[in-house]
Write a structure and sequence with these properties.
By secondary structure, the protein is mainly alpha-helical. The protein has 2 domains: 126 residues, Arc Repressor Mutant, subunit A (Orthogonal Bundle); 29 residues, no CATH class. The protein is built from 7 helices and 2 strands, in the order H-H-H-E-E-H-H-H-H. A two-stranded antiparallel sheet has the order 1-2. It is elongated and about 55 Å long.
Length: 161
C-alpha cells in the first residue's frame, strides 16, 4: 500500500500548522518550508477545510489554523479523508472484472489488512507526531523571523536537555 502525495502533503501541512498554534500560517510559507507548489497546497488546504481539519481566514492577514485541538485529530481519519481511492486491489472496485470476484479469499484478507492499518493509525493523533521541545524534530521554518525564533527556541531546549 502506498499513500498518495495528497495524504503526505496534508500530513505535512497539518503538522506545520499544528506547530504554530499561536498564529495563522500561510500557504506560501508552508510551500516554501516543504518545497511543495502553492497551487497543490491550495487544493489540499481547501479539502482539509471542507473536511473540518482546518479553519481558514481570508484576506491580507489571512491564513489557516487547526479547526480543533491536535489531540482530537486521529491520523486514521485524516488518511480516510485525504485518500481518494482505498481500493488496494481491483476486486475492491465496484466494476471489478476479476474472474475470482465473489470466490476469492484474498480479498477479505487484504481488506482486513487495510482496516487494521487504519485502526492502527486511529490510535495516534496529530499531537503525537508534532515536534516536542528537545526532541530534535522541529519542522523547517521559512520566514527569517520564524527561523530566528526557532533557532533561539532550539538552543534553549538544547540547554535544558
Amino acid at each position: 500500500m502506498r499513500l498518495t502525495a495528497m495524504t503526505d502533503y496534508a500530513m505535512r501541512l497539518l503538522m506545520y500548522v499544528g506547530e504554530h498554534p499561536e498564529r495563522l500560517c500561510t500557504i506560501a510559507e508552508i510551500a516554501q518550508a516543504h518545497g511543495i507548489s502553492e497551487p497543490h497546497l491550495m487544493k489540499i488546504t481547501h479539502r482539509l477545510a471542507q473536511k473540518g481539519w482546518l479553519e481558514t481566514v481570508r484576506g491580507k492577514n489571512g491564513g489557516m489554523r487547526l479547526a480543533r485541538p491536535a489531540q482530537e485529530m486521529r491520523l486514521g481519519s485524516i488518511v480516510r479523508d485525504t485518500e481518494n481511492d482505498m481500493a488496494l486491489i481491483e476486486c475492491f472496485l465496484p466494476d471489478s472484472r476479476c474472474a475470482l470476484t465473489g470466490r476469492c479469499r484474498l480479498t477479505h484478507i487484504i481488506d482486513q489488512a487495510l482496516q487494521d492499518f487504519l485502526l492502527r493509525l486511529d490510535q495516534y493523533t496529530l499531537a503525537d507526531i508534532l515536534a516536542q521541545p528537545g526532541d530534535g524534530l522541529a519542522l523547517p521554518a521559512c520566514a527569517e523571523e520564524d527561523q530566528t525564533i526557532s533557532q533561539r527556541t532550539v538552543i534553549g531546549w538544547a540547554r535544558k536537555v
